[in-house]
Design brief:
Layout lengths: L1 E10 L2 E11 L4 E5 L6 H9 L6 E6 L2 E2 L5 H7 L1 E3 L12 H12 L7 H14 L15 H13 L5 E5 L7 H18 L2 E5 L3 H7 L2 E6 L2 E6 L1 H5 L2 H8 L7
Parallel strand pairs: 3-8, 3-9, 6-7, 7-8
Antiparallel strand pairs: 1-2, 1-4, 4-5, 9-10
The structure holds adenosine-5'-triphosphate (ATP) and magnesium ion.
The site of adenosine-5'-triphosphate (ATP) has 12 residues, from strand 2 and helix 1.
């Protein structure tokens, strides 16, 4: 579904992403992990069209998408969430998701009423329907992360890019969020590329994991290949085991 080849991005003298290759097959959950500053978010920015690659190919469903603006990439079926939630703080939860419904699908003739109706469905799905009239600025972090998910799902993506959806959540909330992402995958048939620092979560969720370090791919494999790989253990913890 997604094929990345020789991807490269530098900022001034810093090579944030260096010659990275990997692919994501339809229906998979693929984890993208690596220490802070490894280049994970930059890879996601390049895929989603938020930034332009210096070199390399990004193919989605057989089409080259590298260099396309993010609204086009979104309409082709790739949507993302942000490491730091980026809601419209002065909008209600319902209005925010309605904007995604209208902008995400290519449905110029859709009425506002229909869009709000559809948005309500996504809010209900993530458990936020009761908070539909609350301004995003008054939601807590878990609710903001669920709002991000609802906004992403409302664009009807085929590939969902998640950037640290669990960051800052307590273990109970993280477990709820994981169940939510699993049910989203099942219900909407989406494929997921998932950046995650919470190792237990990504080990449980992903079928395959790509490890980045200093902008380069260190390895890829199944979760058990990854946690047992001495290079990964070294990269993360200087030799101590990755999962406690
Ligand atoms: N817009 C930018 N301008 C300059 N440097 C940047 C920019 N974005 C990222 N970088 C640098 O590129 C490198 C990779 O950053 P990136 O955010 O992709 O890492 P990450 O793996 O997502 O890290 P984290 O786990 O901390 O989120 C870092 O050294 C970062 O400082
Ligand atoms: Mg990041």
């Amino acid at each position: 579904m997604l094929e990345i080849e020789g991807l490269h991005k530098s900022f001034g003298g810093l090579d944030a992403v260096k010659n990275v290759d990997f692919s994501v097959r339809q229906g998979e959950i693929v984890g993208l992990i690596g220490p802070n500053g490894a280049g994970k978010t930059t890879v996601m920015n390049l895929i989603s069209g938020a930034m332009k690659a210096d070199k390399g190919a990004i193919r989605f469903l057989g089409r080259e998408i590298s260099g396309l603006p993010s609204n086009k990439v979104c309409r082709m079926g790739i949507c993302r969430t942000y490491q730091i939630p980026k809601p419209f703080y002065a909008m209600t939860a319902l209005a925010s998701v309605t904007v995604s419904v209208i902008n995400g699908g290519d449905r110029p003739n859709m009425s506002l009423f229909d869009a709000a109706f559809e948005a309500s469905y996504y809010l209900e799905f993530v458990g936020l329907f009761a908070k539909r009239d609350i301004l995003a600025k008054d939601l807590n972090l878990y609710e903001l992360r669920m709002l991000e998910l609802a906004r992403a799902l409302a664009t009807t993506p085929r590939l969902l890019l998640l950037d640290e959806s669990m960051a800052g959540l307590n273990p109970g909330e993280a477990s709820l969020a994981l169940d939510m992402i699993w049910s989203a995958q099942e219900q909407f048939g989406i494929t997921i590329l998932w950046i995650e620092h919470v190792m237990k979560v990504i080990m449980a969720a992903a079928q395959r994991i790509v490890v980045l370090q200093h902008g380069q791919k260190l390895m890829e494999g199944t979760p058990s290949d990854v946690i047992n790989d001495p290079r990964v253990i070294e990269a993360y913890l200087g030799g101590r085991h990755v999962v406690d």
